[in-house]
Write a sequence for this structure.
């Protein structure tokens, strides 16, 4: 096991992706706790499809993928948040429309230009190993920003998540923090798409926090445990995929799924006993 | 100077006025009950007082050194909170958030305030329990302790007895009485439980989209809307 890890880290491109992957997994799990509890899980899913559309168009135009996708997804995130806040339009339907719409635009762009090449496959299913040096730098910087903001505003984010009206009434600018959550989520999703792909990124956000909630009873421990679970599943998934030559993204998600089932069972036993 | 004064306040949803021409004031130590039928604009008025909703007309003025972010608020419980993984201590402490400003953590005096308010609500022994495992009455105490952390002067309660059994409801009203009498915190409570409203409150505001009555409880009992609403039960 140790030997395997050492071999993995000895390839420079691998250790590069591992670093980016750990940071992205960390960001996704931290934000996931808030998104799941605020009932925003579907927004994460919708954003990943918007991200795919944006990446497809960027690659068709030969533009830098992340630089195009990040602003587009950030705008989409604000928009989706607005929709889910207004009672007039039904939020879940609007999200479904936007996510399938942008997926269709992405697929159309791809088939009209380059066809289903490896680039496109990478965005759909992820390829952590194909991360370039420049992408890596951007990922690391953005992840650190997400982590720092999260830690600085931890208590405010908790208050806004638990009871938005109370937070607003007692003078916390809930709207501002909602925008911050949307912004951080958008960034994390675009970065995570390189790792596990557009189709699987929402699982990276939702699984760890759901798993942690099976057994934790404090918000703080949910946050810490879901971060640990996320990083553990990422490393475990990468190791297995390296050893057995399976797709990295799918392996990571399956590791998350196994842990979720395991923790659900533990939670059920604990509650009965 | 009153703690809070409303002058000709109207509140509207998408151009439709739900509450109009509301004028009243609350002094330090008052206990005001807002009563009325369902859909008479009570909860909307509360939202206006909390600044969650801008009045379409009229003004709300704070006095006696009260600012908009110093109001304690006991909201109706949401579905979202039913399965929320947070400890009682974390929830109560979040009431101190308005004292933090930009400081990213709670200091010692805020933690002490949270502890004190938990003790006062009799939930200190629940402090590390999970919020989702509590009974309805225990949850109300937790949220009340949180509201007390946020205020020293004024507490707003939105239908606090919803979903509680009669015994727990009585306990809750007793708690409110204690907070009002011993800590001199003014209370504004929305309620459709008119009988306990008149037996606890010092003032009554009776709403039916417009105010039908505002004044002391004694005068309310003799007024026309009071007699009609109580149906001669007292």
């Amino acid at each position: 096991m140790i030997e395997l890890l050492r071999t993995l880290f000895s390839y420079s491109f691998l250790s590069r992706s591992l670093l980016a992957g750990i940071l992205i997994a960390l960001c996704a799990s931290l934000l996931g706790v808030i998104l799941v509890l605020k009932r925003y899980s579907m927004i994460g899913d919708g954003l990943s499809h918007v991200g795919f559309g944006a990446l497809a168009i960027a690659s068709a135009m030969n533009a830098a993928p992340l630089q195009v996708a990040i602003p587009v997804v950030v705008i989409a995130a604000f928009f989706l948040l607005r929709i889910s806040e207004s009672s007039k339009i039904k939020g879940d339907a609007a999200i479904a429309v936007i996510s399938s719409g942008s997926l269709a635009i992405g697929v159309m762009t791809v088939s009209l230009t380059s066809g289903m090449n490896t680039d496109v496959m990478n965005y759909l299913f992820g390829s952590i190993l194909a991360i370039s040096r420049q992408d890596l730098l951007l990922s690391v910087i953005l992840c650190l920003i997400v982590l720092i903001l999260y830690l600085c505003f931890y208590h405010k984010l908790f208050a806004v998540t638990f009871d938005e009206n109370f937070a607003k009434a007692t003078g916390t600018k809930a709207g501002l923090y909602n925008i911050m959550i949307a912004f951080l989520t958008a960034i994390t999703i675009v970065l995570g798409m390189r790792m596990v792909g557009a189709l699987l990124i929402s699982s990276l956000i939702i699984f760890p926090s759901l798993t942690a909630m099976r057994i934790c009873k404090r918000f703080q421990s949910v946050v810490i445990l879901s971060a640990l679970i996320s990083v553990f599943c990422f490393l475990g998934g990468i190791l297995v995929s390296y050893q057995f030559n399976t797709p990295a993204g799918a392996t990571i998600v399956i590791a998350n799924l196994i842990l979720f089932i395991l923790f659900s069972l533990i939670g059920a036993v604990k509650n009965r006993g | 100077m009153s703690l809070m004064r409303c002058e000709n306040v109207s509140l509207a949803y998408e151009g439709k006025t739900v509450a109009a021409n509301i004028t009243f004031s609350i002094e330090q130590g008052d206990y005001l009950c807002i009563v009325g039928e369902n859909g008479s604009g009570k909860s909307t008025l509360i939202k206006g007082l909390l600044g969650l909703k801008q009045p379409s007309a009229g003004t709300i003025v704070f006095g006696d050194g009260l600012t908009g972010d110093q109001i304690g608020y006991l909201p109706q419980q949401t579905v979202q909170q039913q399965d929320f993984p947070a400890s009682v201590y974390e929830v109560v402490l979040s009431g101190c958030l308005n004292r933090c400003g930009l400081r990213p953590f709670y200091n010692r005096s805020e933690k002490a305030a949270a502890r004190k308010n938990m003790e006062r609500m009799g939930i200190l022994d629940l402090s590390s329990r999970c919020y989702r495992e509590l009974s309805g009455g225990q949850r109300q105490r937790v949220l009340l302790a949180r509201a007390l952390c946020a205020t020293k002067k004024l507490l707003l309660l939105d239908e606090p007895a919803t979903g509680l059994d009669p015994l727990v409801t009585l306990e809750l009203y007793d708690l409110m009485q204690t907070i009002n009498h011993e800590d001199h915190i003014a209370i504004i409570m929305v309620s459709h439980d008119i009988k306990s409203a008149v037996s606890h409150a010092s003032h009554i505001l009776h709403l039916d989209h417009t105010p039908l009555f505002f004044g002391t409880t004694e005068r309310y009992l003799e007024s026309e809307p009071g007699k009609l609403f109580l149906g001669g039960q007292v």
